Amino acid sequence: MFLTISTSGTPESPANDLGFLLHKHPDKAQAFSTSYGTAHVLYPEASVERCTAALLLEVDPVALVRRGKGKGKGGAPDAALAQYVNDRPYAASSLLAVALSAVFSSAMRGVCNARPERAGQPLPLRIEVPALPARGGAELVHKLFEPLGWTVTVTRIPLDVQFPQWGESRYVHLVLEVPDGKLTLGEALRHLYVLLPVLDDAKHYWVSPDEVDKLLRAGEGWLADHPEQKVITSRYLARRWSLTQEAMQRLELVRLADADDTDVDDLDNAVAADEESADSDSDEGDEGSDKPVPLAVLRREAILAALTGAGAGRVLDLGCGQGQLVQALLKDTRFTEIAGVDVSMRALTIASRRLNIDRMGERQAERVKLFQGSLAYTDKRLKGYDAAVLSEVIEHLDVERLPALEYAVFGSARPRTVLVTTPNVEYNVRWETLPAGHVRHGDHRFEWTREEFRGWARQVAERHGYGVDFVPVGDDDPEVGPPTQMAVFTRTDKTDKTNRVENDSKTDKNAKEVQAA
What's the pTM? Predict the structure, then answer.
């Protein structure tokens, strides 16, 4: 099992700096023990103009069988029929990927103490893999590597050169090149580490949950936007559905965070750490108790009443959090389809656990679905619903991002009814435990007065062809109003289409400017 990594250079940027980057001296042939054999690193050529490092992996077939027991956990893919005669010692696979990670671990991380300035510099690279199993053929090889900036040359290897009538094998001779230096060495090694076992579509070891973390570390900066992300993720994780789903969800969060120019942890903040252990607690209050009904319960009751009055059957809960509203909607059979959407995977995980989706009956499970999404972007999955609910959501967004949310919900999804609830900042003086001038939650970017909220809601309604009414939630204080204010938007379908197109165009432009910023 063999591959070479070559680069060219100049006196100012000598090619033999490759030895520093790989942490392997070009004048020495070195050997490293692995779980299944020995990895050798040597340099067929090493000069200022050109340098080539070779990794040769000698696989011990006896060790492979002993560790894998021939089948099941860790079993070699071909061992069921021939434990000692198979392609594992010769064809690039997960064995070579693991050897790459072990022998060139610092280089994969982009660490080079001797030449730190070179570690982050793109290099003109040429990587050659003489024998690579490609389940999916040359077409898949191109689809995997070309989006990453590689020039790909694939040569099919015949099954037997003496008997051409037997046809071609599933193996290819692969050459990858980036002559104009678009990739760093660390990026190139991480591509190989992930994609070699993907092409082989097999792993020589048991794929455990920590493989998701390995995939995301190696795929940082490229996997989230790769057009073949689903194929890569599924194959790398040995087609284990639960692990693949977890990885895809985390990659989507990475993509959304990149689009919002924010950290993943900042984006995935819908559930506080101390709330996760209490996700199954009820806030309905004790029956017969003199305690006041919690505002959260009053808010859900007001939302359910408004949805029922609107005759909604298919409902979106946008920013569903831990799924309390979805749970309440499921109890009423008038709501035939409920979709919970949130940007936070932690929140969706807790919501799924709260709803016991895995243990639901088939008919009940067909009524509900949870999926990850950002309300700052249009999403075709949001179209076709009777109603959408934004319960205590808008105040968690920066004001300058509201036009993007507005267009995604009112301009693109356009449900017949939209409910928006938000705190009434005027009521804050009635909260004895809330210091003056403070908002109700640390993540609130703003809290509006009744006049401010109504002004915003009326402008939204006018721009997108909706009528709007306002409903108090909780005790309506004669001086400061209710603790929560709710706007009920109803699509009129009477607005002049030309004007609506113009308004949508303006809002779309504003939304795109926000997204671009």
Answer: 0.59
